[in-house]
Amino acid sequence: MIEVLRSGLCDLVMDLGRPGQGAYGVPAGGAADPGALAAANCLVGNDAAAAGLEIILSGPRLRFPRGGVLALTGARFAASRSSGAPVAWNETLVLAAGEVLTLDRPEAGCRCWLALRGGLAVPRVMGSRSTFLPSGFGGHCGRPLQAGDVLRCGMPENDMKLLRATPPPAAMEGCLRVVAGPQAAQFDDAGLAAFFGSPYRVDAASDRRGLRLAGAPVSHARAELRSQGVLPGAIQVPPDAQPIILGWDGPVTGGYPVIAGVITADVPRLAQLKPGDAVRFVTIEVEAARALAAVPWEIKELA
After folding, report:
1. pLDDT tens profile 235-280
2. Which among 245, 234, 184, 181 has a CA at the least distance from the CA of 211?
3. Of 37, 47, 164, 255, which sees the most CB atoms within 10 A?
4. CATH topology for 175-297?
5. Spatial contact of 14 and 31, defined as CB atoms under 8 Å apart
């Protein structure tokens, strides 16, 4: 059980999402870094798809009346426990009954994930416990957590061990690797030079639906397009010529030209971009992108 003493900026119940609902206009959604949430679940003996918390930019203060076994992955936040014990990341943590965990702001990055042994027992909606903010369903009452909320957990499914997780290696900081999009040929030399040759800044209007970028305008032929299927990581260029990287709660179809797509291995890195961060785009071969997508988190027992 978790009691929310103080809410963070946007604390959301998330699992691995609800794929297969695109025909109803509902994106897969789920954790912005599914590997990080799955690793946190592994550290506490849960199924990889169990529901946990996705915590963004400013964290909550949480009380565990009965104690519990939890794990934190993703961006490291300034954190403390009422017992005075250290708060380690990417490791199994055991809390005593009544302990309070406080998460403040990230030391770097934007999001972290918290898994509690047994998983968070909120109702499934369309096969998932994930919060879908644009439509206000899923998770805990379809909204971010608030002070006074109580979250209950389910029954553990696996034996517990004390474990440590190591994420896959990341690419050069500030660079996102991409492959050509379906409308890449519509962009002229000036547009391509701007997109690949200039840094962009993440705009404050960004959220889980998409990361809006500000920088050099990306010119293209402006041909009218039929609506097409799109996925998280697709980079659209709307009429204002400022790229948008579609996010986890973004639309399932779109009519703007897609210049490129962020590779699967780098989509989790989008979760750690916050307003003001700089990004550049670099190309990569499709086969290399597929190989990188297959690199998992490494899980080992604590010595």
Report:
1. 999 989 999 999 999 999 888 999 999 999 999 999 999 999 999 9
2. 245
3. 37
4. Cyclophilin (2.40.100)
5. yes
